[in-house]
UniProtKB/TrEMBL annotation:
Keywords: ATP-binding, Cell inner membrane, Cell membrane, Kinase, Membrane, Nucleotide-binding, Transferase, Transmembrane, Transmembrane helix, Tyrosine-protein kinase. The chain crosses the membrane at residues 17-35. Pfam families: AAA_31 (PF13614), GNVR (PF13807), Wzz (PF02706). The lineage of its organism: Bacteria, Pseudomonadati, Bacteroidota, Cytophagia, Cytophagales. This is non-specific protein-tyrosine kinase. It comes from Xanthocytophaga flava. It is a multi-pass membrane protein.
Length: 778
């Protein structure tokens, strides 16, 4: 890969400075129009605490206010809570509560061209007017609805739209598409405006700052789905620290008051949903306790009736102490029997719940039923956690294609199977324990049967009454605790900071950054264009580049002289006079007499440089001869008015008879090329030029030879050995870089590199330098 010469590139760019100035100017205009037409967006932030304690910690059972309600606790990770907070369902619920489905825009009345007017419009919210949609009627959505005021009380509604969608806000579904809607109708401020496709009421905003009837507006209705998806996409939620339970909610919008209202409502909906979920779980526990209280109450009423009837019939008020020991033992066994039955009933309740319910939402915990079984409680907690996890993941995913949901479903199925197996085992063990306890009860009863019948019956009735009374009091206590907990229930999530605008300046578009980008693009575009152009044409554009690619020294640089014509090539510029004097000094320093001037192609200034170099030697008082050997494009004779004079080829085969023409310039003679054929040219160059030059060396101090372009025709190489030094003319922005490579090959192949130098033609010189030389000349 070629090295890049930074100085050369910068010099090239500076020569085209006007490209950069125009490009930067255009980009600044584009940036100004962009900033003028783009709505400014502001940042709004709020913060919410997702849980009072660490989300990875669980409260111990002895810290629960209600024993047995540990499954009601939310132990989801912070990522799950963020997923719920940003879920489509929560955002949609927020949009529905706000009931703000309309974007109102105020247009610039100074701009009369409608497309441009909309382009420079600005969204307003409760500043001038309010649009209250009549949601019980069909509404046009995603189409601009123009409003222009006729006076302070009436307005005109205009719509012109193709393929417009009609929407029903009650069912939240589109009703169809109208191919073309052209509509115009008057309305009254503060009264319902009713039409087949648009129905609303326009009222002045309470905080209006100006006379709104002097402005034009348009509004766009949006569907609930589009609004929810738009807010969900814009909403950003992140923890304020790595292990913090507080998250920051942020939105960017054109109207910060509107975005702040949404964030506040979103936070409120999230907190209230959590509280309702917790209360619903508590209500399920209360319902179970109430059901058990009803059953025990009915049994207690029956026992009380039996005791009252027995006492009235048998006139027995108290039993003897002789049966006390058996009675106490029987009471203990029957209490165990009740416990066993309660456990069996609960296990069967869990088994039935598993059989008929897909989830375990609302299941009563073992401790709420008076059962202390850690393994069963753990399985229920795991199943409940997996169900919550599945609900959290399903908020923002497609249930049919989400592999995470499939994994969760498999875990739930495995946990339910393990739970079912565990419950069946508990049912079997409880049944065995119940049968064993029943056997002992039967043994004690057999012994009590030996007691007097009245005493035995009274003890039986009192025992049943006492047992049911204890159970009844226990259930009442649990119900009171649950009621108090529900009444005093508070969400463990809270709003830390209400939504507020961050800073007073918009976050986008950034005017400073936009203008800097415009300047950068204004510089990059022309630089890229010039670089591509340079890459495509591959021309020589600087002395440094030339010396680097040829390893030859540049004797002098000839300035581009617009006054020099093809047939009047004598330079008139002082800078070029000085440049040719510099070449003259270089030749004298090298102590060379016969100088050939060539180039790689035509139109590179070879003849121009040869003539002016010969003139420079002649003006310095040196007897100089200029020989034209370019037989194909002979211009030397034309410059000195020698078109009809005999030339070099005309005196074959005797070169001693060559006519040397004197010019009007003292000490300068010219031999023109003449008219040549292919055979005569070759014969002359091989045999005659060497003899001619040998004779002329004695007559002239310097001999300048204008040759054919060595890159096109090889004539010069036929007599190069007769020449003392070679000057190769390279023209800026004309000579191809590939020709420079060919030049190196030619010079090396013919051993001319050490006897050659370069003349850089048509270079650009600074204005200060040219003025300086003009002052010298004057």
């Amino acid at each position: 890969m070629e090295d890049i010469d930074v100085r050369l590139v910068l010099a090239k760019f500076l020569r085209k400075w006007h490209f950069f100035a125009i490009s930067v100017g255009l980009m600044l205009v584009v940036a100004f129009i962009y900033l003028r037409s783009t709505e400014k967006k502001y940042m709004v932030q709020a913060s919410v605490q997702l849980k009072e304690q660490n989300l990875n910690e669980k409260g111990s059972d002895d810290k629960k206010f209600i024993n047995g309600l540990e499954l009601l606790e939310n132990n989801a990770a912070i990522e799950d809570e963020i997923g719920i907070l940003t879920s489509y369902s929560v955002v949609k619920q927020t949009v529905e509560k706000l009931e703000n489905y309309t974007n109102i825009y105020k247009t610039d009345s100074k701009l009369k061209f409608k497309p441009v007017e909309k382009f420079f419009s600005k969204e307003v919210y409760h500043q001038d007017i309010e649009i209250r949609l009549l949601k019980n009627r069909p509404q046009l959505i995603d189409a601009p609805i123009q409003i222009s005021f006729l006076d302070k009380h009436t307005f005109l509604v205009e719509v012109q739209e193709h393929n417009a969608t009609v929407y029903d806000y009650r069912s939240q579904k589109p009703l169809g598409i109208q191919d073309e809607v052209i509509f115009s109708q008057k309305g009254v401020i503060g009264k319902p405006f009713v039409s087949p496709l648009i129905s609303f009421m326009l009222v002045p905003a309470k905080t209006r700052e100006a006379e709104f009837w002097n402005n034009d507006y348009y509004f766009v209705n949006r569907s609930v789905k589009d609004l929810a998806e738009s807010y969900q996409q814009k909403l950003s939620v992140a923890p304020i620290a790595e292990k913090s339970n507080i998250v920051s909610l942020s939105l960017q919008g054109t109207v910060p008051e509107k975005e702040a209202l949404f964030l506040n409502m979103l936070s409120s909906v999230y907190v209230n949903n959590d509280l309702q979920k917790r209360n619903q779980l508590g209500m399920n526990a209360l319902s179970f306790i109430d059901n058990q209280i009803d059953k025990v109450s009915n049994t207690l009423n029956k026992v009380e009736g039996s005791l009252e009837k027995f006492r009235s019939q048998s006139n027995v008020i108290d039993v003897g102490v002789s049966a006390q020991s058996y009675t106490d033992l029987l009471n203990q066994l029957e209490e165990k029997q009740v416990d066993r039955k309660t456990q069996l009933m609960y296990y069967q309740y869990i088994a039935d719940y598993l059989a008929r319910s897909a989830t375990m939402d609302g299941v009563v915990t073992p401790s709420a039923a008076g059962i202390n079984d850690p393994s069963l409680t753990k399985l229920l907690e795991d199943l409940n956690t997996l169900n919550k996890e599945r609900v959290s993941v399903a908020y923002n995913s497609n249930a049919d294609n989400n592999p995470v949901l499939k994994v969760l479903d498999q875990k739930i199925s495995n946990t339910k199977k393990t739970l079912a197996d565990n419950v069946q085992g508990l049912i079997q063990s409880s049944q065995i324990a119940l049968n064993e306890n029943q056997h002992r009860v039967d043994e004690v009863k057999a012994r009590i049967n030996q007691l007097p019948a009245n005493e035995r019956n009274l003890n039986t009735i009192q025992r049943k009454f006492q047992l049911n009374d204890d159970v009844y009091k226990y259930l009442l206590q649990k119900r009171a605790e649950a009621s108090i907990a529900i009444a005093s229930s508070a969400p463990d999530k809270s709003i830390v900071d209400q939504a507020r605008q961050v800073g007073s300046k918009p976050v986008s578009p950034n005017a400073t950054l936009t203008y800097l980008m415009a300047i950068m693009l204004g510089l990059i575009f022309p630089a890229g264009y010039l670089s591509v152009k340079d890459y495509m044409h591959k021309r020589i554009e600087g002395e440094d580049q030339l010396e680097k690619e040829t390893q030859l020294s540049v004797v002098a640089s000839i300035m581009f002289d617009s006054n020099s014509k093809k047939y009047r090539p004598l330079t008139t510029h002082p800078y070029n006079d000085s440049a040719f004097q510099e070449i003259r000094h270089y030749i004298r320093f090298k102590n060379q007499q016969v100088i050939a001037v060539t180039s790689m192609a035509s139109n590179e200034g070879k003849t121009y440089c040869a003539i002016n170099l010969a003139v420079a030697f002649a003006k310095a008082g040196h007897k100089t001869l200029l020989i034209d050997t370019d037989f194909y494009q002979s211009d030397v004779g034309t410059v000195f008015n020698l078109e009809t004079a005999p030339g070099l080829i005309d005196f074959l085969p005797d070169p001693s008879k060559v006519v040397v023409n004197q010019t009007s310039i003292p000490s300068l003679d010219v031999i023109s090329a003449g008219q040549a054929s292919e055979s005569s040219r070759a014969a002359f160059l091989r045999s005659s030029l060497e003899k001619l030059l040998a004779e002329l060396r004695h007559t002239y101090t310097y001999i300048i030879i204008d040759t054919c372009p060595v890159g096109l025709i090889s004539d010069y190489l036929l007599f190069a050995s007769c020449v003392d030094y070679t000057l190769v003319v390279v023209r800026s922005d004309v000579t191809k870089r590939e020709n420079i490579g060919r030049l190196n090959t030619i010079l090396n192949r013919h051993n001319l590199k050490n006897k050659s130098a370069l003349v850089y033609n048509a270079t650009r010189v600074s204005k200060e330098l040219t003025n300086y030389y003009k002052k010298i000349a004057s």
